[in-house]
Amino acid sequence: MSGWEIFTWISVGILGIGSIIVFILFLRDLPELLKKSEKGPS
Predict the structure, then answer these.
(1) Which helix (H) or strand (E) holds 42?
(2) Model pTM?
(3) What is the per-residue DSSP string for 6-36?
(4) Hey, which of 2, 11, 14, 23 has its CA 20 to 30 A from 38?
């Protein structure tokens, strides 16, 4: 494997893990966001 291939796979891994973490954080905050939206615009 060339250096670019290794760099590409490392980047894919980092971005994939990062997107999963962001999605989990979004799901954790989703109930609070829904409560705020039910009250109407502030």
Answers:
(1) none
(2) 0.67
(3) HHHHHHHHHHHHHHHHHHHHHHHHHHHHHHH
(4) 23
